[in-house]
Amino acid sequence: MDLHxxxxxxxxxxxEAYAEHRPDYPVAAIRWALEPLxxxxxxxxxxxxxxTGKLTAGLVAEGHRVTAVEPNEQMLSExxxxxxxxxxxxxxxxxxxxxxxxxxxxxxxxxFHWFDQEKALxxxxxxxxxxxxxxxMWLDTDPDVAWLEEFQQLSNTSVExxxxxxxxxxxxxxxxPAEHAVFPHVHRRDSPEATVAWxxxxxxxxxxxxxxxAAVNDKMLEFLRERPExxxxxxDVPLRSEVFRTVRVSE
Length: 251
Ligand SMILES: C[S@@+](CC[C@H](N)C(=O)[O-])C[C@H]1O[C@@H](n2cnc3c(N)ncnc32)[C@H](O)[C@@H]1O
Known about the structure:
Rossmann fold; 24% strand; binds S-adenosylmethionine
């Protein structure tokens, strides 16, 4: 298995920690993504690569009929345990187990970069109704916060973060031009240890060897225990959610 495939499949080994320590998504980002549909009524929404249900839970809370599709068994089990009122199905973005034109919006949270784009985009187009929306979103630490930038540098490993340019990727005949928006968010952490536990749920941490991981963890902990922003009790880590949306055109 190559590194890309190993990383894409790495999250399940830490599924429980993932569910406990990863952030959720801002409601404003979900609402913005759905704006082109022109209604706030209950919609048929698909959370593709749903993981343990971080985004799924937000979609359910907004009152939508949600189908969650996730290939990793351990991640899907966590989702089923934690998120109710959702139809949860095993499946991949390249072969979505949902009939043609039955979905109003496909959401992808921090996972679009793992897909085989050439196969996934036509599949997403197939399940969407004409006029439906594809929304790909990510969560990143706020690059304008000095201590956080320093912390991010410290948490780098021999494996780099994975990301494509979504606008370029979404340039596909089944979809209109992609629009982009950024939403502020925070991730509440109780302690430096909980912050390090969060970072350890990223694939670049999951696929490195134990020795490298231990060294990076020591550096991160030392930093967080010394910084005034993070050394004492609960603190909010400033995040931003980048969202790209595009509308399924009629053929
Ligand atoms: C970083 S996690 C994001 C999970 C969730 N959407 C969230 O925001 O927390 C990436 C997820 O993509 C899934 N994944 C990887 N390759 C995939 C593929 N080809 N099709 C669908 N899901 C995939 C992984 O199993 C993992 O659950």
